[in-house]
């Protein structure tokens, strides 16, 4: 009998389910690229040339010809995640069958997998906006909420991002402040509907979607984007329920998801982020134990951004790293596959820094 369950009392046949919601990040993504059967896709873009004055004499009257080259962005899927759990047949019978494997799997997807995917996508978008300088950190109040949103809309407009199709993902706090802003109440589209039904609706053709804070970067007020800016392949979504596998009287449930989110270089200006702090890119760091107090550190992709390098710090807790702030006490990491001594510490923090040691990305691993 499972020690984690109390089977002495009678179970109700209806399970007290937690609140869930479907993926909201899918509204921010496109499906323009096919990752079926491959791990990496190369995306090409063609640059332009500057205008010049026409010369009425000489051989190069239109200016000196430049060879147009192609820019290549390599997109490699990095997230390979899994889960598993067991429902003992005795526990299932003695709980009046409420521990159903199929329902437990659906619960796992709604409560764990979907929130993880959304949080990953929103962080990727916010970090890209930060890296491009398309972000703001002004404290939001009920008197400036609408103005800050319009500033973001203006920033996208000045980058030639189409007006139609934009989506703003905001925290419930920002939504509440927006509803209290007299300017929004006067000029926002569907403001009367908002008053009656309690919904945000649209502003200047931009959908506003309220998102639970747990799925947004810490301190996020809103994230404004256009679906053309990013694509998020979900290459593999495999879920299995095994009945009475060897050694188990009951059900073994397993799941695996392979996914990622990529911001397209030529469309990255279609993202604007506003929050209490800028957002660091997330480094994909894994470790392999190679001996007592010895680990090998792997990063995917295997090279840092141009002009940057990796460094690490061990400690009893994860190190706090802030965007564009110089790190202190870190040791250079020679590259992916480097071996380091942990000295019994519990956390490994890896930072990607520029030539002035200012942080651009961070990844944390809890060591066993």
Radius of gyration: 25 Å
End-to-end Cα distance, whole Å, is 29 Å
Q: What is the residue-averaged pLDDT? A: 86
Number of strands: 21
Order of helices and strands: EEEHHEHEHHHEEEEEEEEEEEEEEEE
Give the structural class: alpha+beta
Number of helices: 6
Name the helicity range.
Answer: 10-25%
Unreliable spans: 1-16, 191-199
Side-by-side strand order of the widest sheet: 4-13-8-5-7-6
Largest sheet: 6 strands, mixed
DSSP strand content: 25-35%
- Per the principal axes of the C-alpha atoms, what is the gross shape? globular
Protein name: N4-gp56 family major capsid protein
Give the key terms:
368 residues, alpha+beta, 6-stranded mixed sheet, 5-stranded mixed sheet, 20% helix
What does this structure look like?
The chain is of the alpha+beta class and about 375 residues long. The protein is globular, with a radius of gyration of 25 Å. The relative contact order is 0.15. The strands form six sheets. Strands 4-13-8-5-7-6 form a six-stranded mixed sheet, sandwiched between helices. Strands 14-21-20-17-18 form a five-stranded mixed sheet. It has six helices and 21 strands. About 20% of the residues lie in helices and about 30% in strands. The protein starts with about 40 loop residues before the first strand and ends with a strand. The chain has helices spanning about 90-95, 100-130, 145-160, 170-180, 180-185, 190-195, and strands spanning about 40-45, 70-75, 80-90, 135, 165-170, 200-205, 205-210, 220-225, 230, 235-245, 250-260, 260-265, 270-275, 280, 285-290, 295-300, 310-315, 330-335, 340, 345-355, 360-365. The longest helix has about 30 residues, at about 100-130. This is N4-gp56 family major capsid protein.
């Amino acid at each position: 009998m499972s020690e984690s369950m109390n089977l002495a009392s009678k179970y109700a046949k209806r399970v007290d389910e937690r609140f869930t919601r479907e993926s909201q990040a899918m509204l921010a993504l496109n499906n323009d690229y096919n990752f079926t059967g491959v791990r990496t896709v190369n995306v090409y873009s063609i640059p332009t040339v500057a205008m010049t004055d026409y010369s009425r004499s000489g051989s190069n009257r239109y200016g000196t010809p430049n060879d147009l080259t192609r820019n290549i962005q390599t997109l490699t899927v990095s997230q390979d995640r899994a889960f598993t759990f067991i429902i003992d047949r005795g526990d299932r019978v003695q709980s009046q069958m409420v521990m159903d494997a199929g329902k437990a799997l659906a619960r796992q997807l709604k409560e764990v997998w979907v929130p993880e995917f959304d949080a990953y996508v929103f962080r990727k978008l916010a970090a890209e906006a930060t890296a491009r300088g398309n972000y703001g950190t002004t404290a939001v109040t009920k008197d400036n909420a609408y103005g800050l949103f319009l500033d973001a809309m203006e920033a996208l407009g000045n980058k030639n991002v189409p007006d139609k199709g934009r989506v703003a993902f905001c925290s419930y706090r920002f939504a509440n402040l927006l509803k209290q802003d007299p300017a929004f109440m006067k000029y926002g589209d569907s403001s009367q509907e908002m008053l009656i039904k309690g919904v945000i609706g649209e502003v200047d053709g931009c959908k506003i979607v309220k998102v639970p804070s747990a799925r947004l970067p810490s301190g996020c007020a809103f994230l404004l984007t256009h679906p053309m800016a990013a694509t998020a392949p979900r290459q593999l979504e495999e879920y299995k329920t095994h009945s009475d596998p060897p050694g188990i009287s009951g059900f073994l449930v397993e799941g695996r998801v392979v996914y990622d989110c990529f911001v397209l270089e030529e469309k990255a200006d279609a993202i604007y982020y506003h929050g209490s702090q800028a957002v660091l890119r997330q480094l994909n760091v894994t470790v392999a134990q190679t001996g007592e107090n010895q680990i090998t550190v792997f990063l995917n992709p295997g090279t840092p951004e141009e002009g940057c390098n990796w460094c690490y710090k061990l400690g009893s807790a994860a190190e706090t790293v802030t965007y564009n702030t110089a790190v202190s006490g870190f040791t250079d990491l020679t590259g992916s596959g480097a071996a380091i001594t942990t000295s019994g510490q519990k956390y490994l923090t890896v930072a990607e820094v520029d030539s002035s040691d200012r942080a651009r990305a961070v990844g944390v691993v809890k060591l066993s």
